[in-house]
Structure formats: C-alpha cells, structure tokens
Prior knowledge:
single chain; alpha/beta; Rossmann fold; Amino acid/polyamine transporter I; 7-stranded mixed beta sheet; 24 helices; 7 strands
Amino acid sequence: MITAAEPGPPRRRTTVIPDRLVERGRSSGRLGFLLAWSVVFADIGTSIYYVPGLLFKELGARAPSPAAAFVLATGLVFILLSLKYVEVAARYPDGGGVVSVASDAFGPFIGCLGGVLICVDYFLTGAISSVSGFTYLAGLFPGVEHWIVPASCGAIIFLGLLNYIGIRESAGVTAVLAISSLVVNLVVLGTVAIHLTGAQWHQVLDQFSAVKALTSWQALTGFSSSWLAFSGLESISQIAPALQEPRQKTALRAMVLVIAAILITSPLMTAFETALLNVTQMQPQEYDRFLLALGGAFGSHPLEVAIVLTSATLLMGAANTALIGCYHVFLALVRLGYMPHWLAERSRAFNTPHRAIAISVLVPILVVIGSAGRMEMLGDMYAFGLLGAFTLTSLGLDRIRWQERARNGAFYLGLLTTALVVLSWAINLVHKIPATVFGGSVTLVGMALAYAVRRGSIGTPKQGFTSAEAAERAGTQMASAVDIVTVDEALDMKAIYSSSTLVALRSANLRLLQEAAARTRGGNEQAVYLLFVDEIPGLFFPPKTGPSKEAREVLATAVDFFKRADLVAIPIWRMAHDAGASVAGAARKLGAEAVMVGTSQRSAVWHLLRGNILKSLVRDLPERTRVWICN
C-alpha cells in the first residue's frame, strides 16, 4: 500500500494500489549465469564481425586461407585462459580483474601497469567497435561509407554524454542483443550449410589444414593475431561483484556457455567467409564486413537487414561497455593512489565521474581520427593492450597459486597457458611495430603520470578503500550524535535505537522530514532511519568510495532537523546501481514498516535512462511494508 501525504491541512489521502498491479520482486538483483553469459558474449561476440576480414588481409589473399585454422587453434588456448578468468572472478568479489590480480601477485605498481594496459585495450575497443558498426551500416546505406570516421566519433561522444547523465545499462537489454546476435549468426551458418555442395564443403574444410603451407614465422604471427577473435574476456572479472553466489559456479557456467557459443560460430564462420566469398570482385572495405557479404551471397535481403541491425547494435553496446570499463579502471587507479584525485570527482548534477568519462571518450576519438578509420590499423593496435592484460592476469594468477603452494595439474596447465599468451604478445611486439609504438607510448605516459602522482609531484593521491565494508564506513564526521553508518551497523544499533520508519532521501525535503517526525512520534518511537543512496550508473560495479559530498550534506541537514525535534536520526549510506532496490533491501533488513520518500522531480528522460526508482522500490519491498510519498 502506498500512502501519499500532501501539503495543506493535516488531512491525508491514502491511495491503495491493487495487488495485481504491484510486482513483488523475488530476485536478489544479481546476475545469474545466463545474464552473465550475455554480458561477456556481447563483448567477445562482436569480434566475429571484423576479425575474419582482418586476418584474411594480414595473412594474404591466399587459397585456402589459414585464418579459420588460427581461430580454432587460438580458441583451444582461449578455453584454458577462460578457466583462469573464472578463478579471478571468484577470488576478487569486488572486481578489478587484471588490476587486482597483478597487485596481489607483483605489487600495486604492476597492478597499475595492468590497469593502464587494459585501458589501452578499452580505448581500442571503443574505436574499433564504433568504426565496425558504421562499416556494417554502410553495407545497407552506401552513403554512410564516406562518413564513417565522423559518424564513429559522433557515436562515441553520444555514448559519453549518456554516461555523463548516467544511463543504467541493463543486463536484460544486453541479453536480448547477445541472443539476437547469436541467433542471426546461427541462421547464417545454417543458411550457408544447406546450400553447399560436396565440393564446396571440401573447400571449406581445406581452410583448417592450410597452415601446413606457411613458414614457421607466418604460423606464429597468424596465431598471435587471431587472439583478436577472443577480446572481451576481461568482462567476466569486471562483473564479478554482480554475480550470484556461489560466484565461482556462476562464472564457470557462464564461461562454458561463452566458450560453446564462440567455438560453434567463430571458426566455422571464418572458414565459410574465407572459402566461399569471391574476394577478387570485392572492394577492400567489404573485407571489413565479411559476415554481411556471406549473408548476401547465400541468403535473402531480410537476412542482410538482420545482420546489419544485430551487428551495429551489439558493436555500439561493446563500445559503451568499453567506455564504462575504462573510466572504472581510472577510478580504481585513483583509489590505489596512482592517478590524481580530481579524476574521480563526480559531477554535482548527475553524480558521475565526468572527468574520467571525458578522457575515456577523447582518446578513442583521437584513435579513430589518427587511423582514419582503417580497420587493419585499429586491429594491430588493439592487440597490444589486449595481450598485455591477458599476460599480466595469467602470469599473476600463476604466481599467486605458487605462493599458495597450489601446484597441482591446474597450476601446470596454467603455466602452459601463460607461455602461449606471452609468446603471442612477444610476437606482436616485434611484428607490429606501429602498434607497439602506439601502445608503448600510451603505457609509458600512463605509468609516468602514475609515478608522479605516487611521488606527490602531480596532484595528491586519494586514499581509497580496499573493501565494500570500508567504503560504506567512510564519510566525513557529522555534527551529530550519530555518524554515517552502514545498514549492518544500523542493525547492530537496534537494541538502543530502533525504528519502524525509514526515510529515503534525495534532498533535504522539509515536508518529508516533517511527515517522518510526525509518524515517529505517533508511533511512540524516538528514532528514525535516514537513507541516502549514491546511484552509480553503468553495468560494471565501480571501485568502492565513501559517501558523495551531496550525500554528506543531505544527511547532515536531516540529522540536524531531527536533533532539533528531540529525535534520534540514524544516517545510513549505500551505493547501488538501482536506488529503489537498494532502499527496499535496507528496509527489509531493518524491518521497517514504512518507507517514506519525496515526490520525484525527475524528468521522463531521467527515468528512461536510469529507471523508475519508485517502481523498483515497490516491486522489491516486503508485502507488509508501506510506502509514503510526501510532496
């Protein structure tokens, strides 16, 4: 039941929402293995749109092409590396991926190096995904061909603006995109397969044995280059905080599905494209949309439209995920004291790290402009950060296992995996000099800045927090008898200060505070719970920090109001993607009988981007808890 308190006479109007209109959520709000699969596949699965063409161009237009064989061979090593990332997701429930692993294994400075390398990877992910998305659109709309570079830059800027406002990236939407892409890819494979003759099948299978015609160096460079087909693996460790418990089981089941989906589609699709397309009659830019050409050669126009829609949307989603991942790595490096604290400061209007977002947008734009949108150049540069992050993660986990004396079969299999990844990175460093120069320059600049910040030469290192519990206990001392506390600390205080009223604050709403005081007195209680939730946009969970300045100011004002009213206010702070679900969770833990909120001042655009807080609050509250809306 929702009770609305309106200004004016003391009379109150009560509005009862029928039970059939109130959805009571029973979900914990965490990602199960299917949603986790969709997040990771939506990142890794985009490589199928551009990697076959890049490999074909790099290996030379030979027949048969060894591209499919390299994708399959690298896929087998990818399985081993995926299992190590499952362990990383289980070991580090607060996320962090390569930063956390490298820090534990080799120290914080090497952890910082891992962060810089993964940022290089994210920069290139944003650039190559946006360019590839518009390249596919140009396949249906030829006029786009001459505008790919400015359109890609415009798309990155648009994504940056959305993240500045604070779009709530939904795992459900990501799942729809991932499933749609997989279904369309399977339809393409099936459509091609039923049209092939015996001779054509023989031609396709020849692609997997074409490596025998290569020199040893060509085989090594092909193997190292084909790792691009598996970029995005880091995603599983970044979403670790959102995984359902037991985290390792959820991560393992998700990665098994990812491995199956990738290995079923990527090698065979690459073989079809390199064996069956008449490349001699194709324009060079058409190599960058091999999948569309394959669908057009064997399917109908609706299939081409489906390929373009799924590829463009999923690629833009990957660019957005890269942007989010990049600025969260920046925040992690600020927390570790390797980046200046101003980089993590949040905008007053939207509570988003606008400076970190701006850098995460600016660098990919410069990369797109500097490369003139050439996919082969972007692909070469991409491999530097990708394989560097893979190397540090795999090697770091090996060292941690060694220190723990866990020297079993998995340990030695992990050493083999590391050796193959290190070999691939080393080959790329000497084979793709321009990419090494770019990636090495960005890494050196990043590490030089980190060293200067750590030494105090630039800015002041920000003291961060190593756990969620430490973050939730952080905050400025308030001029009141009670400091900002966590929900668990408020539970510990129930024996002294107990209340049935929880007030969810977004601002110092005087009418809301007055109504809460009246209800508290009317229930013969002396205390009231105050809750402020710092909303964090995006899908990835950020590094934990203390309450925002806005949270401290609003809670301080509210505490002072109740102090003057001779009531005890218990200020609670939380951090969440979904403020409504977070408030509901706090009410459930504290046993609140009423949750009091102010009327929303947010626009329809805000609700579209960040979701409807009241809707998720009502959905997740226990049946016995009422919601009071006060003007």
